[in-house]
Amino acid sequence: MARLAMVGAGLMGEAILSGLRNAGWAGADIVVCDLRAGRVAELRDRYDVLGADLVEAVGDARTVLLAVKPHDVGSVLEQIRPALAEGALLLSVCAGVTLATLEAGLDDGTPVVRAMPNTPARVGQGITAISPGAYATPDHLEEVTEILGAVGEVVTVAEKLQDSVTAVSGSGPAYVFLIAEALIEGGVHLGLSRAVARDLVVQTLRGSATLLHESGEHPALLREAVTSPGGTTAAALRTLEDHGVRAAFLAAVEAARDRSIELG
Fold it and tell me: Which helix (H) or strand (E) holds 220?
């Protein structure tokens, strides 16, 4: 019996697959299926894992990782429902799809865990929030934590907070990339080459995140430490506040949360 069947092999599926192989999972413990036969062959060759059709994959797995588009979840659940092995766990990383929706599409008593990872999982630096369904046990959460811990950190939250998680960390990398893009463009406007501006911005973001993580200090204190009275940083921060950047971020995460609710 395969330890894990991956249903859906897009970028997030591949990130998790890569993380598991790097963490020492045997290729024979993972079976991949996708609507695109060529994609299955590609991942099978790249990661030395198994490939199978949908019914065969889930029927031979202890845990099924569902990583398809939200609008495909209903039809996929309909197909895998009769094929799931007794006691198999369903782990969903489908954005916005609720535990109630997932459980309604499966036999009564099927353990389900909902998860929201983010794209830094591609480099082993993601964070995933997980929420257990009605029949998920601590052992199931331990299994899920091991799977998703291969691509970053894992936290457990109440499901009612999953849409908020989506807004903050699920969509969060896009906010950071937008900031990076704007800072690089600003450097170019000030005469820096694009390559130098990119190096400056990327390392500044990396170093700032590391400092925030390792210091344990509140971000406001770290910001104040950079901001000398009447200095360059103070002038820049005043301009950002004048343009409503803080309020824009608050509105942005609320909009993302609301859209997540709509998708669910």
Answer: helix 219-226
Q: Phi first, then psi: give them for residue 64, nearest 5 degrees.
A: -115, 120
pLDDT in tens, 14-31: 999 999 999 899 999 999
Angle between helix 245-263 and 232-242 (nearest 10): 50
Rounded CA-CA distance 17/14 in Å is: 5
**CATH, domain range 2-158:** 3.40.50.720
Question: Which residues sit opposite 130 in a β-bridge?
Answer: 115, 156
Query: Cα-flanking dihedrals φ and ψ of residue 26, to 5°?
Result: -75, 140
The answer to whether 164 and 115 have CB atoms below 8 angstroms apart is no
Long-range contacts of 32-39 (CB under 8 A, 24+ apart): 32/5, 32/6, 32/57, 33/5, 33/6, 33/7, 33/9, 33/57, 33/58, 34/7, 34/8, 34/9, 36/9, 39/9
CATH node for 170-263? 1.10.3730.10
Helix axes 219-226, 194-215, angle to 10 degrees: 130
Domain spans, the chain: 2-158, 170-263
Which amino acid appears at position 159 of this protein? E
Q: Which two tokens stand for residue 205?
A: 């973001």
- Give me the DSSP letters along 36-96: -HHHHHHHHHHHT-EE--HHHHHHTEEEEEE-S-GGGHHHHHHHHTTTSPTTPEEEE--TT
Supply the pLDDT for residue 1. 64
